[in-house]
């Protein structure tokens, strides 16, 4: 039976609380691991953990600040407390501020017997940004942290209890971010094209099953060649950055901030597939998959031909075949998803970086999250609404009524 509106609001509120708790627990586990490394005299490992935390946090604060700074210029968006906004982001609390703001708005609409359309739209607007930031945090911090802890275990041949905690929290964080991101993409679809929970499960499984072998082989390479893994990452990151630039992304409100987005996407592509542009999606996804598979095979060959001995050699003999099985299963689920679970109708009009046709005419008078709608259009290139009319105006991440978009450009 379909869920009642209040049950859906309560479910979203609970999911928001759990997502925030998962982020805090993962953060606590990483800080705990760093403190244990310091106490045991492994200062380099502690520095690497803290460096990954710091770099990812700074990137998240920049994304959050840029989006908030552009969104508050719209008369449709309730303005956050401006005098505290910069301080919160300087203190690396911008993402948590967004989580609290989203929970407050979710609680507000749930407590109302008949919440207004604007309150509902604003709750969706906030949750979509949080989902996007959570995905960025997953590939900028959680996935590299998981790779690092696996490399440490492979190199040392043993795992401490706090490392197992870090691995578990990382897997929970990655899993949650993937599921939440797909749920957010579904929110941007027309009502008649909403995907069922089975599609989200398959999407989650094929992403996780393809991600796990990649993380393992990168961790193996890091354990064998700790001095060269940074060069390997930098070389591939530059290739992916150039590839993303060639696709002409237009996600951020300004040309300078767009490079932050491209650099983040290049990091995601080092581990997993992420679509950033319309047209020829299948071809680009195939190229990326073959490229990443060949690179992973080269890393495995480097281990097989390396004379250096790792204490975890026997463990690897069982882990690598399991990783191969995971890859094949993930590839099969990915093909099944795109063959049977993806929307099948086309967008109209087919315009790059546009968000027209995502919602009904009535919804276009409300607050809309252009950023996530743009990604949903790239992810669901064949989906469209039955009623297709151009948006009446656009202001950075917010869509509004009242002007001609052709004049805006």
Automatic annotation (TrEMBL):
GO terms for biological process: apoptotic process involved in development; engulfment of apoptotic cell; phosphatidylserine exposure on apoptotic cell surface. Its main location: membrane. The keyword Zinc-finger does not apply. InterPro entries: XK-rel, XK-related_scramblase. It holds the Pfam family XK-related. It is found in: Cell membrane; Membrane. Keywords: Apoptosis, Cell membrane, Membrane, Transmembrane, Transmembrane helix. The chain crosses the membrane at residues 43-68, 161-179, 199-221, 228-247, 259-277, 289-309, 315-337. It catalyses: a 1,2-diacyl-sn-glycero-3-phospho-L-serine(in) = a 1,2-diacyl-sn-glycero-3-phospho-L-serine(out). One of its GO terms (cellular component) is plasma membrane. It is a multi-pass membrane protein. Belongs to the XK family. PANTHER family: XK-RELATED PROTEIN (PTHR16024), XK-RELATED PROTEIN 8 (PTHR16024:SF8). This is XK-related protein.
């Amino acid at each position: 039976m379909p869920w009642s509106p209040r049950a859906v609001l309560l479910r979203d509120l609970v999911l928001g609380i759990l997502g925030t708790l998962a982020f805090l627990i993962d953060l606590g586990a990483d800080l705990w691991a760093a403190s244990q490394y310091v106490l045991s005299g492994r200062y380099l490992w502690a520095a690497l953990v803290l460096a990954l935390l710091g770099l990812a946090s700074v990137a998240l604060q920049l994304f959050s600040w840029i989006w908030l700074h552009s969104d508050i210029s719209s008369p449709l968006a309730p303005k956050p407390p401006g005098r505290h906004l910069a301080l919160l982001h300087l203190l690396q609390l911008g993402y948590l501020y967004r989580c609290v703001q989203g929970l407050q708005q979710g609680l507000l609409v749930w407590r109302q017997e008949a919440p207004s359309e604007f309150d509902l739209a604003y709750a969706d607007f906030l949750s979509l940004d949080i989902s996007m930031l959570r995905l960025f945090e997953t590939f900028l911090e959680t996935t590299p942290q998981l790779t690092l802890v696996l490399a440490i275990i492979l190199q040392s041949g043993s795992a401490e209890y706090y490392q197992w905690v870090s691995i578990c929290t990382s897997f929970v964080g990655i899993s949650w971010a993937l599921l939440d991101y797909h749920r957010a993409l579904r929110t941007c679809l027309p009502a008649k094209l909403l995907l069922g929970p089975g599609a989200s499960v398959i999407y989650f499984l094929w992403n996780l099953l393809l991600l796990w072998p990649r993380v393992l082989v990168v961790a193996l390479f890091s354990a064998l060649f700790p001095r060269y893994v940074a060069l390997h990452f930098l070389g591939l990151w530059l290739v992916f950055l150039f590839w993303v630039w060639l696709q002409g992304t237009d996600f951020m409100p300004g040309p300078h901030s767009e490079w932050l987005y491209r650099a983040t996407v290049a990091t995601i592509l080092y581990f997993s597939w992420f679509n950033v542009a319309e047209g020829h999606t299948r071809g680009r996804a195939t190229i990326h998959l073959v490229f990443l598979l060949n690179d992973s095979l080269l890393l495995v060959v480097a281990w097989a031909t390396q004379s250096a001995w790792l204490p975890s050699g026997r463990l690897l003999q069982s882990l690598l075949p399991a990783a191969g099985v995971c890859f094949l299963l993930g590839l099969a689920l990915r093909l099944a998803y795109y063959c049977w679970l993806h929307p099948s109708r086309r967008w109209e009009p087919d315009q790059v970086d546009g968000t027209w046709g995502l919602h009904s005419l009535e919804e276009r008078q409300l607050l809309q999250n252009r950023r996530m709608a743009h990604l949903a259009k790239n992810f669901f290139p064949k989906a469209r609404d039955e009623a297709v009319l151009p948006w009446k105006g656009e202001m950075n991440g917010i869509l509004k009524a009242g002007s001609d978009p052709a004049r805006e450009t």
